[in-house]
Amino acid sequence: MLDKWFGASRWLWNTALGIRSEAYRHCALKLNGNDISGWLTQWKRTAGHEWLADVPATCLTQTLRDLDRAFSNFFAKRARYPKFKARTTSGALRFQDIGSAWSDGILSLPKLGALKLTEGLPGTAKPAMVTLRQDAVGRYFVSFSAAVDVAILPVTGKVIGVDLGLMHLATLSSGAKIVAPKKYRATLSKLRQQQRCLARQQKGSKRRQRQRRRIAKIHARIVDQRQYALHHLTTDLVRKYDVIAIEDLNVKAMARGMHSRSIHDAAFSEFRRQLTYKAQWYGRTVIACDRFYPSSKLCSRCGHKLDQLRLDIREWECQKCGAHHDRDINAAQNLLTAAMRQLAGSDSRDLRADGESPCTTVMSAQVFPREARSGQLMSECLEHERIS
Ligand SMILES: [Zn+2]
């Protein structure tokens, strides 16, 4: 039934988009959702289109409103011209009238009735709109936005620098190294193996199609496992430290480089996104150091700067003071130093080391609906390796 609904919503989007584009191209006529809505009532009575009447009216109205918004974004130069939706893309339906059972912890949608959810509903007021979504591997999700009071965490008096890497998920200035969970690494290697399989298969064949679906499933699992690990790490950092210094990695620049791995790049930006909004929720400070700040090449003890440090060198000795450094821990310590200098600079100008500050503070945060419960993550998800 839901497949039919997604199909109907997609059909309406494509039909309305086609009509609006043609009307403008041939008659310079600007139609809107209300015009199409009038026709929709007619279509429902037309032979061959009766199936439109089986779909909840609110979903179809929302589809037209979504298209209206896509057009106004285009005219305001915020987005490209709306696109037709392909059959393969996963669908979404939006419901405005979501039934009255919400306060009892039950979500009921028009024509679907009560839905059994994997997680319980939060104890918030009934939201005005609920989105039902299907992802690329066929799982269903409901999402909604709600206002929630979040208590600020008590001050701990601790600060930390975090260096993100390919070898480890993160290295802390305290010397702790956090490795990605074993399961995550295993799934990564499984993905590579299955992708090699795909490359050998004939284009357009049924077997290849099946293989693509298999790979989409592995991808979804990787994203889930990564989210899990990152949520654990970011929640842990925000609970323990008042100030967290991170590197402002230019993800786009990294993707162009030789050491790019799309999955790792995504992990970097996801880490920063989570850390930023959690810090805002709980009253912590996140400072992102400029990507041109040479955090790896500076000696964290004496400040001596190396001319270059090859990526494969994991440990090095300072020529000036003789300190022995682990590459990542040293970088994390330098990030912390730069962040503290930045903080001091914002309090009293005299403490600033040089004219320009190497840091910029992160302020924007985006929260995805699925995450309004970051504390639920299990502790066995990460292995902590302490090195001396
Ligand atoms: Zn040194």
Q: Can you describe this structure?
A:
The chain has helices at residues 2-27, 33-45, 57-75, 182-200, 206-240, 251-256, 262-282, 327-347; strands spanning 92-95, 107-109, 113-115, 130-134, 140-143, 159-164, 170-172, 176-179, 243-247, 285-289, 315-317, 324-326, 359-361, 383-386. By secondary structure, the chain is α+β, with helices and mostly antiparallel strands. It folds into three domains: 2-75; 92-143, no CATH class; 159-184 and 213-386, Nucleotidyltransferase, domain 5. The strands form four sheets. It has a seven-stranded mixed β-sheet with strand order 13-10-9-6-7-8-14. β2 (107-109) and β3 form a beta hairpin. α1 (2-27) crosses α3 (57-75) and α2 runs antiparallel to α3 (57-75). The longest helix is centred in the middle third of the chain and has 35 residues, at 206-240. Mean pLDDT is 80; it is low at 347-388. Zinc ion binds at residues 299, 301-302, 304, 318, 320-321, 323.
Helix and strand arrangement:
Layout: H1 2-27, H2 33-45, H3 57-75, E1 92-95, E2 107-109, E3 113-115, E4 130-134, E5 140-143, E6 159-164, E7 170-172, E8 176-179, H4 182-200, H5 206-240, E9 243-247, H6 251-256, H7 262-282, E10 285-289, E11 315-317, E12 324-326, H8 327-347, E13 359-361, E14 383-386
Parallel strand pairs: 6-9, 9-10
Antiparallel strand pairs: 1-4, 2-3, 4-5, 6-7, 7-8, 8-14, 10-13, 11-12
Helix pairs in contact: 1-3, 2-3, 4-5, 5-7
Bound molecules: zinc ion.
